[in-house]
Amino acid sequence: MRIQIDVTMNYRFLQPNTVFLALEAAHTDGQTVLEDRLSLGPAQLTRITGDAGVGERIWARVPDTEMHLTYRALVDVTRPDPALESLNAMPLHAIPGAVAPYLRPSRYCQSDKFLMFVDKRFGDFSGGQKVLAMRDWITDELSYVSGSSGVDTDVLETFAGRQGVCRDYAHLLCTLVRAAQIPARFVAAYSPHIDPPDFHAVAEVWLDDAWHLVDATGMASADDMAIIAVGRDAYDTAFMESQSPAELLTQTVQVTQV
Amino acid sequence: MRIQIDVTMNYRFLQPNTVFLALEAAHTDGQTVLEDRLSLGPAQLTRITGDAGVGERIWARVPDTEMHLTYRALVDVTRPDPALESLNAMPLHAIPGAVAPYLRPSRYCQSDKFLMFVDKRFGDFSGGQKVLAMRDWITDELSYVSGSSGVDTDVLETFAGRQGVCRDYAHLLCTLVRAAQIPARFVAAYSPHIDPPDFHAVAEVWLDDAWHLVDATGMASADDMAIIAVGRDAYDTAFMESQSPAELLTQTVQVTQV
Amino acid sequence: MRIQIDVTMNYRFLQPNTVFLALEAAHTDGQTVLEDRLSLGPAQLTRITGDAGVGERIWARVPDTEMHLTYRALVDVTRPDPALESLNAMPLHAIPGAVAPYLRPSRYCQSDKFLMFVDKRFGDFSGGQKVLAMRDWITDELSYVSGSSGVDTDVLETFAGRQGVCRDYAHLLCTLVRAAQIPARFVAAYSPHIDPPDFHAVAEVWLDDAWHLVDATGMASADDMAIIAVGRDAYDTAFMESQSPAELLTQTVQVTQV
Amino acid sequence: MRIQIDVTMNYRFLQPNTVFLALEAAHTDGQTVLEDRLSLGPAQLTRITGDAGVGERIWARVPDTEMHLTYRALVDVTRPDPALESLNAMPLHAIPGAVAPYLRPSRYCQSDKFLMFVDKRFGDFSGGQKVLAMRDWITDELSYVSGSSGVDTDVLETFAGRQGVCRDYAHLLCTLVRAAQIPARFVAAYSPHIDPPDFHAVAEVWLDDAWHLVDATGMASADDMAIIAVGRDAYDTAFMESQSPAELLTQTVQVTQV
Q: Which residues in chain A have Cβ-Cβ distances shorter than 8 Å to D46?
């Protein structure tokens, strides 16, 4: 599937500022970036490799108190939607060093607290079928409610509160999967099927020696998403981190199938 | 039912100490204390009224570095086991001032986080039937595992962890009930059916203008429990609070039907 | 000091609603309510006694989807500003049953976590001088920043974050005082010196067998405040609790010295 | 400095188990492992690269219900103790992709909550002098108390509680440093000066384009430590993680200067 991405961001700062951006579609497996153009004026950009070597992040030094950003890209998503039900979990001793950190809890995903729940509720399943059972459970149990969570909401609150937005769905899926000793990471992505259009967040799980995208909100699928960045949880993939208070002027995200 | 209670507690302190005790069967509705005798030597005792006017607590000034306590009581439990399924929740405006605080969250019971879960899972029930559905859900979902929780364990952890001891069962029941706008308080009690014998903790819910005991562990019932103290959660009913580190030497709790 | 209080509140609900109100100046020690008039149309009101017997709360059944409230009162504040530095802490065994609960942690005030800090920082002080040292420390260390905290902010976050509004100042003072084994409760109040004008929150500490108001923000003092309600923390004294989402239309609080 | 490390670990499991071990001195910059020998019988070992490419971790499949491990190593620590006071923080845009994740909060280190405190307390310092001011502040404010923290203790509790063991000191230092926009990671290490002898934990900070070890407990220094593993916090560097309950039979750690 070919998708076109158009982002505009306009922010005001109290003072000249360095911001950390993660918003470009990654040049990574399963997707081909045919064209991309980031325009950010006035600013000096330094590109660095993203977490786990996926994509690039940008340190942008903004000499002024306003930042005007446009990003346009054309991406071919070449990966198929995985048949998760036929994929196997790896035995622990076959999990490589680059993947093992994604077995562990993180700032928002206290997976160490969920061992018993996961064993009770999903103990009869294994591998991709276990992941699917978790995804379906989340879809059933959570309500998607805009504004129902904030930057401090962690997975203990989401699990009790039974509502959230895409970040919370992805946090809960990562948490349950990790609690079952299957590596899971948090993924920021673009998809044409997000309503209202916005940055999206999903999980990626490690089965049969590879990462596979899973969206617990049901809005996107692996074959229509362009990955931006991966990490342990939402803190690692924020589209913009600012060193000082940032006032949102306008922001638009448009993703269309072309 | 007539029950006999025998408690011995022996503690060592670093220095002379003031401890706060809540361990005597309360002279309160539904139970008649026929005999009771607390021996605590050497110590000076000051009795004060317990939370919500239930029972007494004791400030004990221990002039030495050891405390040796024995407590023996004979109690007739006269309350019946309530037919919860036929009791009604009170409309909010009929909840009196002395009861309203038990609608609110507390140190260990963040009931404000559970509104959506309670609505989804138990929204079809009302009154006593709702409380019973919650009790049964807890009985099904939690595993009673000695040592699986500690003094810091709150209900968010218990809900995710799906295990605990009586305090955690009672915390979770109080939390779910409060999230349904029904007052619930935490109760420390004695019962002959606790295995291994120990202080016990249950919930009390406000239905049809009265408090009713409910034990989510299933070990005790309203007609075999002697209430010690009530409060918002375990912090309010600790059998002993010490101002300095206390080393447990020996402690026994025996409760027998006579 | 005589103060006049004028409050208007206009809220919209999704459906007919029962709200819990705590906004009338209490008929309690240290203040005389000369006149007061609450108008809340259309609604049926049920008054109940406030926590600790201080003031009244109101269950208001609003049959419509809008609530329009006006409250006007004239109050003589007759209590003097206490000379805290000359007041003594009570020995624990002299703390009565109605006061003892305010030694304990609560939903937002995890005072059990602060024992060592309080001992290290304030161990050289006692009684009212200790409370004053805590108040001054908070005044020095915290920055008053509107919007810097929310309904979920607890005292662990405030202590690390070093900013907040009046509720956070009061939470931190209650927490430190309780950690020093001195009872402290949370108080909602009116004062003419709040800028911008709003409901205010302070602490009340138990010294020499009585409660004494202390404002860590420095904006108000005991002799210019009209107490509305007391409790363990902000959850117990919310000016309005709604059973369903409430949209603020307009709200004004005016307090003037007359 | 040349140090000799001797570790014995004997654990009993409920069933055959896969454990994750991080206990070998890393073959990494600043230290030369002259000899090392791990004996773990009976078990099948799979070595993987440690977090950030530092050292190796081991998946050990233990076919029996007991694990007997001995580890002996001889290590030359060749790095000098850094003159932190003369080192500079890097501007954000010069922080590379492999280092940027260590600017962010983690499971135990909610550095996002400490921005204001760090600005107020340490805002006058910069670079290595800021790190030293933080280290000295921690040394002054915290008390080293064995058993005062547990596996659930996070930095919000440590900051309020003002006590802990080496993991808590390292968590707090990592947290404060990250809150000042300087990368910091958690390091498990051996040092001959730990009393009582045990695995040790310290922080590593990114100054002048390199990592530098800092021990807030004051027990060890960069020139006497052999690094085992690095990560975001204690969860990433646990010396042993077990998939099922593990009973400690005996464990000894001896580190001597030779």
A: 93-94
